[in-house]
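User: Predict the structure for this protein chain, please.
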Amino acid sequence: MKPAPFELVRPASVAEAIAAVIPAGARILAGGQSLGPMLNLRVVQPRLLVQVNHLPELAASTETIEAITLGACVTHATIAAGRLPDFVGGLLANIAGGIAYQAVRNRGTIGGSLSHADPAADWVTVLTALGAQAVLQSAGGTRRVPVSDFIAGAFVTTLAPSEILTAVCIPRPPAKAGWGYVKACRKPGEFAHAMAAALLDGPRRRLVIGAIGGKPLLLTDAQAGMDGARAALAATPGLDKVASHMLLVVVHRALEQAAACRA
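Assistant: Here is the predicted structure, written as structure tokens:
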């Protein structure tokens, strides 16, 4: 199939992009790795596409003692290649390097992936576990929303119609923190059937279980262990025994990885 007719605009600035998306029926186009197939299948039929991946301010990155901020149009390939600020051990590069295939990584963007909010997307789970914030800009100003709140459900975010995602701000994990991330796929490059990310820092813990068909499960502190994961999955509708078992396996391995990092 081919897309329904639409108009394409290439704004000269973020301000112009924001003005373009305010009318109903407009969609932001970044890498197009998810939106493109949806257009071809006519799952979505926007009247207007606003292309933004050519805007320099959306591909910039900054680094401070407290955090790393990546522009929404930074590609997975750029992160994977280690050309941007990263955490000890190349945490972000390792995640980006495991996303889909090289052709997808070359064009897919961190902001596009997050805005698409696919439950099985790596950044949705990883950025939730890292306590990242989505930086949202409108004509009225900028606001920051924790990724755990930005993702409202499967393919649903709290992005307002008059806003665009301009960046992702990722706080630095504590120096002695342990990190683990495990996903289960039928073969490399496919979307995961189960995923889990764990961040351990002494008594402070964050465990995120993704690829559950909806908003990721975020467990903190005392809940962020195997017992908490079992209880949370048991209370999650739509999971059969096979899916629950696979999810518990990746949770166990992610927690083991995080513990080994701290050792």
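The longest strand covers residues 164-171.
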